[in-house]
Amino acid sequence: MKRKRFRLSSLFKGLCLLIVLAVCVIPFLFMIITSLKSSQDLYSIPVYQLPEVFHFENYAEVLSGNFFQYLLNSLIVVAISVVLVLLVSAMASFSLIRVGFKGASGALGLIIAGMAIPVHVAIVPLFLMSVETNVYDTLFALIGPYVAFAIPMSIFILSDFMRTVPKEMEEAARIDGCPLYKIFFKIFLPLTSPALVTLAIYNAVQLWGEFLFALVLTQDIASRTLPLGIWEFKGVHQANIPMIMTFLTLSSLPLFIVYIAGQERMIKGMMVGSVKE
């Protein structure tokens, strides 16, 4: 009876995983298949069926436009923002959790409470500040808000992770005369690398698809990111669905590559706290 229940439980879990996998993968496959079709193929064959002739000219046309400019802007903004978020959040978490000072718990609670504030309530003040500081319509206009609004969640996750680092390692380093900054960079940063990778991927995904700040704080193609590129491209090619799917496919590839490269460490980071020693 127990074995039968175990098999039913395993079967149910397997079916749930298959459903989740299908929900995540099938839309991406449909997007790739559609990008290889012509406008005529889109209405003459089923959406899940590959065309007889692959239309790679869709990719050539997308790449011949402003795609690389949008891509470069997104890469610069996301890379700088993620690095700054991880560095500031790691230092803040280390100070709040392991260094300790009067009012540290209150400061941590105040930072975490910042997650409850909708980020878009600050869009008008940010616009006025960017104009006053002459950073409007530049990449710097996006980096500042992206970093500021990503820090609370990152500190929330990293602070919990740093509590799991054995105090004996820190105490041994202090006895050996290791300065505080070396304890942080040589002990805590390597041990928290799974959480850092998890946060890097999470923040990269969030910032890669951010639209409203980019729409309000930038104007020229030279400073606009991929979400705005997709929006503008769709306005030009409204009736050409395969071309739009081609742009979306190319826009998704960098994140897909980053996720595949860091998936092992990301899984380790997500498992933190699930097993108590």
UniProtKB/TrEMBL annotation:
Which Pfam families does the entry link to? BPD_transp_1
Return the InterPro entries for the record.
MetI-like (IPR000515), MetI-like_sf (IPR035906)
Domain ABC transmembrane type-1: start-end pairs: 71-262
Compartments, record wording: Cell membrane
Question: What keywords does the record list, in alphabetical order?
Answer: Cell membrane, Membrane, Transmembrane, Transmembrane helix, Transport
**Which CDD domains does UniProt cross-reference here?**
TM_PBP2
| Segment forming the signal sequence | none
- Lineage: superkingdom: Bacteria
Biological process GO terms, please?
A: transmembrane transport
| Residue stretches spanning the membrane | 12-33, 70-94, 106-128, 140-162, 183-205, 241-261
UniProt topology in membrane: Multi-pass membrane protein
Q: What's one GO-annotated cellular component?
A: plasma membrane
To which protein family does this belong?
Belongs to the binding-protein-dependent transport system permease family.
Q: Please report the name of this protein according to its UniProt entry.
A: Carbohydrate ABC transporter permease
The protein's organism comes out as Candidatus Scatavimonas merdigallinarum
Recall the taxonomic lineage recorded for the source organism: Bacteria, Bacillati, Bacillota, Clostridia, Eubacteriales
